[in-house]
Specification:
single chain; 407 residues; alpha/beta; Aspartate Aminotransferase, domain 1; Aspartate Aminotransferase, domain 2; seven-stranded mixed β-sheet; binds ligand C6P
Length: 407
């Protein structure tokens, strides 16, 4: 049973505002971060105004309540991504933190000079730089599977680049610069054939397509709360139990131990071992509320909507002379990235802002993708459940204004 997107804008108070005299705001920067849903704001408000207490420590009522709510959010995430057990879910500060944890805690100790890590050419910097740091630390090599000019990973090349020396594969599910949906299930199966574990960067996927870790059979999966209508500073690292048993904690401190003496520390059970110190309790509870919210609507409904709007935006933008679409994969969602002859993307972004249309202009923390397409930056409109075809009309009107200025 899925919900409807009718009147969904009412759930997002940030939409109802005037920017540069334009009302309502057309927010098309959802790939950077989404607006926060009312139930999320209410959950944060409740925690901070009434239920503010630390977790896993107190016997008093509020501490127990906070612990209950925090652990309930873990179960919500487990169900949402189809994980086998609740212990497979680790709360982090975001996708970036999660990938770095895997790099340092799981992969580093398995690498010898000459071993290989395989990524793709369309990764976000968060799925490139941690592996480069590991390369510096270990003498391993970073291999990069190329993409074609539509912005799709070349599966044949990806398969050929897997070797007995591949110790880790780390791939984005949905490209933040192009909107491409990668055939992750197939890529995981190829990697597993040679025994390589796979991390899936689901930062963009989690709010735009249904994600199921059991179906994908990935070993790790990372996402950020703020891209799925939840609070900033929250995120999730999923790991298969047997894999998490082999991962070391990267940070030590309170709550991640069973016992400490000066001679020896015994770590806590999974997942607490990987959540040292006081976590973002309010944020995690808010993330649980965000996931409950999208679950009520249904990810299939949201996915169909985002895909339809991105396709329509691309179709309409491509009718403007001088527009070049960047990223035209057969399987893509939520993102329309483009450049316009004679106009720098930053100028496009600024003029659109003056017309009450918020997009992102820049390299989108995916500079290798920009290099592939021979551009420095793009203008990127990214769609979410509260966007409508009317927003595309406003986008088009504003881009035509840019043309008047620059052509
Ligand atoms: N992309 C964008 O505008 P964090 O910052 O840790 O929440 O997420 C990092 C990240 C990792 N992978 C992908 C595919 C991403 O898109 C992002 C964040 C934002 O595209 C900010 S650069």
């Amino acid at each position: 049973m899925t919900g409807t997107l009718a009147r969904v804008d009412q759930d997002f108070p940030a939409l109802a505002q005037t920017i540069h005299g334009q009302y309502p705001l057309v927010y098309l920067d959802n790939a950077a971060t989404t607006f926060k849903a009312r139930p999320v704001i209410a959950a944060l408000n409740r925690y901070y105004s009434q239920e503010s207490a630390n977790i896993h420590r107190g016997v008093h009522t509020l501490s127990q309540l906070a612990t209950e709510r925090y652990e309930a959010a873990r179960a919500t995430v487990q169900t949402f991504i189809g994980a086998e057990q609740v212990e497979d879910i680790i709360f982090t500060s975001g996708t970036t933190a999660a990938i770095n944890m895997v790099a340092q805690g799981f992969v580093r100790k398995r690498l010898s000079p000459g071993d290989e890590i395989l990524i793709t050419e369309m990764e976000h910097h968060s799925n490139i730089v941690p592996w480069q740091m590991l390369r510096e630390q270990t003498g391993a090599q970073l291999k990069v599977a190329p993409i074609n000019d539509l912005g799709e990973v070349r599966l044949d090349a990806f398969a050929e680049m897997l070797s007995p020396r591949t110790k880790m594969v780390s791939i984005g599910y949905v490209s933040n610069a192009l909107g491409t949906i990668n055939p992750v299930k197939q890529m995981v199966a190829l990697a597993h054939r040679i025994g390589a574990p796979v991390l899936v960067d689901a930062a963009q996927a989690v709010a735009t397509i249904p994600v199921n870790v059991t179906d994908l059979d990935c070993d790790f999966l990372a996402f950020s709360g703020h891209k799925i209508f939840g609070p900033t500073g929250t995120g999730v690292l999923y790991g298969k139990q047997a894999i998490l048993e082999q991962m070391d904690p990267v940070f030590g401190g309170g709550d991640m131990i069973l016992s400490v003496t000066f001679e020896k520390t015994v770590y806590n059970h999974i997942p607490y071992r990987f959540e040292p110190g006081t976590p973002h309790i309010a944020g995690v509870i808010g993330l649980g509320a965000a996931i409950d919210y999208v679950t009520r609507i249904g990810m299939e409904t949201i996915a169909a909507h985002d895909r339809k709007l991105a396709r329509l935006a691309a179709e309409r933008l491509s009718t403007i002379p001088g527009v070049r679409l960047i990223g035209e994969a057969a399987d893509k969602t939520s993102i329309a990235s483009f450049v316009l002859e004679h106009a720098h993307p930053h100028d496009i972004g600024t003029i659109l802002d003056n017309h009450g249309v918020a997009i992102r202009a820049g390299h989108h923390c995916a500079q290798p993708v920009m290099q592939h397409f021979g551009v420095e930056a793009t203008a990127r409109a990214s769609f979410s459940l509260y966007n409508t075809e009317r927003d595309i009309d406003r986008l088009m009107e504003a881009v035509l204004k840019v043309k008047e200025v620059f052509v």
